[in-house]
Each structure stands twice: as structure tokens, then as C-alpha cells.
Write a structure and sequence with these properties.
The chain is of the alpha/beta class. Helix content is 30%, strand content 23%. The chain has helices spanning 68-72, 86-99, 121-128, 147-152, 164-171, 183-195, 210-221, 232-240, 297-309, 321-334, 348-356, 367-378, 389-395, 412-421, 438-443; strands at residues 4-11, 25-30, 33-38, 48-51, 56-59, 61-66, 78-79, 105-110, 133-137, 142-145, 162-163, 198-203, 225-230, 248-250, 253-264, 314-318, 338-342, 360-363, 398-401, 460-463, 475-480, 483-487. Helix 2 packs parallel to helix 3 (121-128), helix 6 (183-195) crosses helix 7 and helix 9 (297-309) packs across helix 10.
Length: 488
């Protein structure tokens, strides 16, 4: 924890009822908490002073959905997002293999749902030989591998892609053929986030355990606040350790804490596995024309009940509307608390129920930039119910924005802009009835905080412009628990 005196800062009202002083004020942070707010505050001896010079001071931003290990490796992997067919991808792989024979090819970012056909293992084998090739889709819910990579990851031979739970399990073995993320990679990712005004994140990484975070925390990754989740395979270990959501993982440090149990209850749109009430209108899987759940209702309810009984919140991934309905039913039966992650497709009654249950709607607005054309193809009869931020707001649900990095960049300003403009190019807003205002989107990005006030955590950001009226205002200073972690 650190102390800091901020001079001449203009406070940003965040939520309804916040009334900012007409003139800039001083803000004193002591032991990581806002100790005083007012004009002409005395500077205690030995405390650093920063002059905001009339610029804007707000609670720091959060990303409520990150896969930090994968995001930390994103710059080390080949960007395949530009490929538009299996032939383009195979040509790229052939070029990479020829340029550095024997070095595994790890790609990420392609979205094959709109390709004229799906690639096969044989396509990759023809140009890669014994060089392992792993091409992770942009939604991270499946990967296209060659035979060498299938063997290295102990997967059965096949011609198609590896999807959902089978892929999530295989991802844990990827370090066999490529470097895994280390503390330096994490540190670099955290510093990039801090430069954007991020003070905290919820980490849903698939690989690793609580001790992994404890170790990297001591290796220089103690920069932002982190809530680290567990998955079902780690739940009993968390319970055995007696950890509840919000408990510190290290004594005396409330910046690294236990997060929720994460459950992936259905698939994704790009993989055509998001579980819907109705059949997909294009490209449906023959065996699952409406997508499919990853868990039975009984299994999902059992996990929620187990976590809730031991003081853990639950973050349930639900992209399709049928998955959302099942998740809400399980929360109702168990009384579990937490969030629904994604809420990418919903019926109005499900949105109302989500709000009534007091659950957080943890959404990733930038996904609509990537998915709008695919939705018009695959959910053509229900596009008006996709990314229903307007309904969620009107129902009184708690909205929390995030990125799902690396699916979208870890950049809260991108998420805010997508929630407001509902477009990422020159086209008009897509279903603008669901657009948030910029103040609403900003308020959904600060972890439920109000305007900077006494006794609030010392997690603050100094901005060159008012975030309620300007897109991506330059970040001049980011402070976490009173400690400066970024200075422009």
C-alpha cells in the first residue's frame, strides 16, 4: 500500500446521484485508500504529490473477463484473423513452415464460420509434415491441428477440428510444443493494461492454479488487482483451502484475491455450439442444430450448489438463450450469487429474471463488432435479441464490461466504444436500440464504484478528457492501492 496526494483534480461523476464539485479538488491517499477529498489539503511529510492540473480523476477501470495467460502470449503467436478460407490459411502455414523449418506454428484469431468450407487435418499435413501446427480460432472454442500436433497433445486422429471441452483440456498440454507464458509475459500484459487505465481484472485463464498466481505475484506481477477464478477441476482444492470469493491469496494483500468458480455451460457462436432455443439459420451442426449444453441441468445445478455452500460466487458462461435460461434456473434453485458471462443472446423474460436475481451481466461489447455479420447469417431470425445491452439496462441489471481477451483486445475503451456506437467500421450502428450512452458504459467499466470519495479504494485514473464525453481519453496516471503503476 502507498500514499499519494493528487492536486487540482476534476472529479468524474459516475453514477446517478453523484454530484461533482464545481472546481478541481485535492485527493489524499493513505495506506491504499482515499483518506480525504477537498481543496487545499495539507501534504503529509514524505508523500509524493502529483498535479493533475485540472484534468479528470475517476475510479480506475476493470476488465471483468480476461484469459490473461493467453493474452500475454498473443503477440508471440501468428495472427490469423485476416484469413478468409482454408486455402489462405494453408498458404500461410506453408510459408511459416518453409521460413523456419521444424519450429511449431501456433496461430490464433481466424473465424471460419463464414468460410466456404472448413479446413481438414489433411490440408495442414500436406504443407507441414512433422512440424506441429495449432491454429486456435478467434473465439478460443476450437482449434485446427495437424497430425503432428494431435499426437503431441494426445488427441485421437481425425479430419475435423478439436472443439469445446476436448480443446480446453488439450490446451493445458500446449506447453509441450511451444513456450508457455512466464512472469515476464504476464508483467508486460499488466503494464499494457495499466497504460489504458485498468486497475483490476478477473482472470479466467484455463491453465494453472492459485499457486501459479502466488508465484508470479512475487515475480513482479503485483501491479493490478486480480480476482482469479477456478474451474470445476480445481474447485475441491479451493474448498479444501477454505477460500471464499474475495479472500486474499496472500496474507495482508487484498489486491490478489479468490474470484469465482467459472463454468462454461455452452459453446460459442463461431463454433455453432452456443445452445439456443431455436435452430441455427445457417451452418448448423447436424448433430446439434441448435447448439448444445456442455453440462446437464443437474450437473450445472450441482456445481452452483457446491460453490455457493462454500462461499464462492459463480461466473457462468452462457452465450445462447437456452443456456442462459438453464443457468438462471440453476441460480434460482441454489441461491448462488455471481454473474452470467456473455449474455450474447437472450429473450426479454430471461433478461428480466437475470436482473431480479441480482446477478451481474458480464458482457464483452467488442464481440458484436466481430460477430454482427455472422449473427445476421446464423441467427437471422433473432438478431434483434443479440447483445441486448439496452434490455439489460432497462431491467436494472448490473452491467460489467470486459474484453474476453484474447478474443478481443484487453482495452476497456474499445469495449466502451462498441457498447455506445455498436459498430466498428463505417456502417451505421447495429440495432442501436440496445446502445448504451457513454456515461452508462463508463459506469459499467469501473467495478461498481461511484465518484472518487473518502474510504474508497485508492484505485484511480487521471484522464486528459472527460470519459463521459470523449472516446479513449489519454491516460496520464494509473494508481492501484495508492501506488502509481503507470505514468504518461
Amino acid at each position: 500500500m502507498s500514499d499519494l496526494l493528487l492536486r487540482h483534480a476534476r472529479l468524474v461523476p459516475v453514477r446517478a446521484g453523484d454530484v461533482a464539485p464545481a472546481e478541481p479538488v485535492d485527493v489524499l491517499l493513505r495506506e491504499g485508500t482515499v483518506h480525504a477529498v477537498g481543496s487545499g489539503l495539507s501534504r503529509p511529510a514524505g508523500i509524493e504529490e502529483y498535479d493533475a492540473a485540472g484534468r479528470w480523476l475517476a475510479p480506475g477501470l476493470w476488465d471483468h473477463h480476461v484469459h490473461l495467460g493467453q493474452w500475454s502470449l498473443a503477440t508471440q503467436r501468428t495472427d490469423t484473423s485476416h484469413t478468409r478460407s482454408p486455402e489462405e490459411m494453408v498458404a500461410l502455414v506453408a510459408e511459416l513452415v518453409a521460413g523456419d523449418p521444424g519450429t511449431p506454428v501456433i496461430g490464433w484469431g481466424h473465424r471460419p464460420a463464414t468460410w466456404p468450407r472448413q479446413g481438414t487435418v489433411s490440408d495442414l499435413d500436406a504443407v507441414s509434415g512433422i512440424t506441429p501446427v495449432v491454429l486456435v480460432s478467434g473465439d478460443c472454442h476450437h482449434a485446427w491441428l495437424n497430425s503432428a500436433a494431435l499426437a503431441a497433445l494426445e488427441l485421437a486422429p481425425r479430419e475435423g477440428v478439436v472443439t469445446e471441452t476436448e480443446w480446453f483440456d488439450a490446451y493445458a498440454l500446449l506447453a509441450r510444443i511451444t513456450a508457455d507464458s512466464g512472469a515476464e509475459d504476464y508483467q508486460a500484459a499488466l503494464l499494457r493494461a495499466a497504460s489504458l487505465g485498468v486497475v483490476g481484472l478477473v482472470d479466467f485463464e484455463f491453465v494453472g492454479d492459485l499457486d501459479s498466481w502466488r508465484e508470479r505475484w512475487h515475480d513482479g506481477c503485483d501491479l493490478l488487482r486480480v480476482r482469479t477464478a477456478t474451474y470445476a477441476d480445481g474447485l475441491e482444492a479451493v474448498i479444501a483451502e477454505g477460500l471464499r470469493s474475495g479472500d486474499p491469496l496472500l496474507p495482508g494483500d487484498d489486491r490478489l484475491v479468490m474470484g469465482p468458480l467459472k463454468i462454461i455451460s455452452d459453446g460459442s457462436l463461431n463454433t455453432r455450439t452456443a445452445w439456443c432455443h431455436d435452430h441455427y439459420t445457417h451452418g448448423a451442426l447436424p448433430q446439434h442444430p441448435a447448439g448444445a449444453p456442455n453440462l446437464s441441468g443437474h450437473e450445472l445445478t450441482g456445481l452452483l450448489a457446491r460453490a455457493h455452500a462454500h462461499g464462492l460466487e459463480v461466473a457462468t458462461h452462457a452465450i445462447g438463450d437456452a443456456a442462459l435460461a438453464q443457468a438462471l434456473h440453476s441460480y434460482t434453485l441454489t441461491g448462488a450469487r455471481g454473474s452470467i458471462e456473455h449474455v450474447q443472446l437472450a429473450r426479454r423474460e430471461e433478461v428480466t429474471r437475470l436482473a431480479q436475481l441480482g446477478l451481474r451481466a458480464s458482457v464483452q461489447p467488442h464481440h458484436l463488432v466481430d460477430d454482427r455479420d455472422l449473427i445476421e447469417l446464423t441467427w437471422a431470425d433473432r438478431a434483434e435479441r443479440a447483445f441486448p445491452f439496452g434490455w439489460l439496462r432497462d431491467a436494472g441489471a448490473w452491467l460489467h464490461l470486459g474484453s474476453d481477451a484474447p478474443v478481443s483486445p484487453l482495452d476497456p475503451w474499445l469495449a466502451i466504444d462498441a457498447a455506445v456506437r455498436r459498430t466498428g467500421d463505417e456502417r451505421p450502428a447495429w440495432h442501436p436500440e440496445h446502445a448504451l450512452t457513454r456515461p452508462e458504459a463508463f459506469a459499467a467499466s469501473v467495478d461498481g464504484r461511484r465518484m472518487v470519495e473518502v474510504d474508497a479504494p485508492g484505485d484511480l485514473v487521471v484522464l486528459d478528457e472527460d470519459p463521459r464525453t470523449h472516446a479513449a481519453p489519454p491516460v496520464l496516471l494509473t494508481v492501484v492501492a495508492g501506488r502509481v503503476v503507470h505514468r504518461a
